[in-house]
Amino acid sequence: MTTVTIPAQLEKRESRGAVPWPRMAWVTWRQYRIAVAGLVVVLGAVSVYLLIIGDQARSFGGAAGHSLTLTAALFQVIPALIGAFVGAPVLARELETGTFRYTWTQGFGRARWTVATVAPLAVVVTVLAGIVGFLFSWAYGPLIGGKYGASVLAGNTFDLHGATFAAWTLAAFSIGVLAGLLIRRVVPAMLATMAAWGVLAVVTGVFLRPHYEAPLVSSNPDLPSSSWVMSTWWTQDGKTVSSSTINEVLQKAGAQVSGGSVSLRPGSALGNMSPTQFLVAHGFTQVSSYQPASRFWPFQWIEAGWLLALSLLIISLVIWLVHRRAT
Fold first, then answer.
1. Beta-carbon count within 10 A of 193 CB
2. In sequence order, which residues have a C-beta less than 8 Å from that of residue 99 and are 6 or more positions away?
3. 79 with 196, same domain?
4. In this model, does residue 163 exceed pLDDT 90?
5. Which of 46, 57, 80, 156 makes the best surface tag, with the fewest CB within 10 Å?
6. Are residues 97 and 180 both part of a single domain?
């Protein structure tokens, strides 16, 4: 066999698909069993923590809830870490070490090899993250509304609940796989994955999520504490009043306004009224733009839906690039 006929022989072997899918699944398991085991251990520890803290929140409330709120910030980086440490090395390691030259000539075909490698890992990380997401919803439940005043739509916890945590994890994994393919080096691909995920998370929280449905507008000063209040402003006789005007009114009444906070001086005209009550009594109306807590699940499925579509698009792009890209 000459060097001229080798590529043709390899393509012919690939087209026959000599290696069956079950055998390739076994190879994938052998290759990534340590990564999967590590993922199970980490997410298992998180799940145990949520079970413990959730039970404490139901029994003791405040202290446990405060602890859960603080750790929520740490949970935010879990999808990015999974994308970086599980997703990015999938193709980057093969390309960086050059083992793809052997892998892609083993009678399975590069596109089918990519599907058999990426798809099972994507399913595993999504299922495990979904379990953690619904456990977080259960643990965080006692803090919603009531005396704790937590909003189920709050930006610091919304993507940790239910379906969205699984969807964000799948998206991070998919971004990691694509970064590994394009960059072809493990460590730079990991860094790029975390950066891309961070940008996507910020854009979603600031520009997309608030507009999944049109916000409601209300002049009721006592909105449910579980609502997501997006903005507030004051009006008088139907016209918007600037914050400087509001501050001037409060200062004339004897209140001290500094940095957005209001404190009462002795002998203030506010008496026993709060600043809001005083302004309402003097003809001002506070208007709020908000998302009600009842929109939690619609927002969950909207966000999970487009993240799932994005992930499938990225994985499809990866498969196409692997199939088309020259070695």
1. 30
2. 93
3. yes
4. yes
5. 156
6. yes
Place of tokens 């959730």: 54
Domain for residue 93, yes or no? yes
Nearest to 87 by CA among 198, 161, 194, 160: 194
Q: Is the dihedral of CA 129, 131, 134, 135 positive or negative?
A: negative
The verdict on 282 and 299 lying in the same domain is no
Tell me which H or E stretch contains 264: strand 261-264
Instruction: Kindly state whether residues 205 and 319 are assigned to the same domain.
Output: yes
Token readout for 98 is: 């050059």
In angstroms, how far apart are the furthest CA atoms of the chain?
Answer: 101
Residue-number span of the structural domain to which 91 is assigned: 6-213+294-324
Same domain? For 85 and 180 the reply is yes
pLDDT at 151: 82
229 bridge partner residues? 290
Same structural domain for residues 158 and 298?
A: yes
Residues 74 and 206 in one domain: yes
Q: What average pLDDT does this structure show over 89-95?
A: 92
Structure tokens at 258: 């500094």
- Three-state secondary structure call for residue 287: strand
For residue 17, what pLDDT is reported? Answer: 47
Sequence-distant (≥ 6) Cβ neighbours of residue 177 within 8 angstroms: 87, 88, 90, 91, 118, 314, 315, 318
Q: Is residue 12 part of a domain?
A: yes
Q: What would the pLDDT profile of 44-76 be if each residue is shown by its tens digit?
A: 999 999 999 888 877 766 566 667 777 888 899
Pair (138, 236) in one structural domain = no
Whole-model pTM: value is: 0.86
Higher pLDDT, 102 or 186: 186
- Tokens read off for 229: 């209040």
**How many structural domains is the chain composed of?**
2
Render 193-241 in DSSP notation, one character per residue: HHHHHHHHHHHIIIIIGGGSSPPEEE--S---TTSEEEEEEEEETTEEE
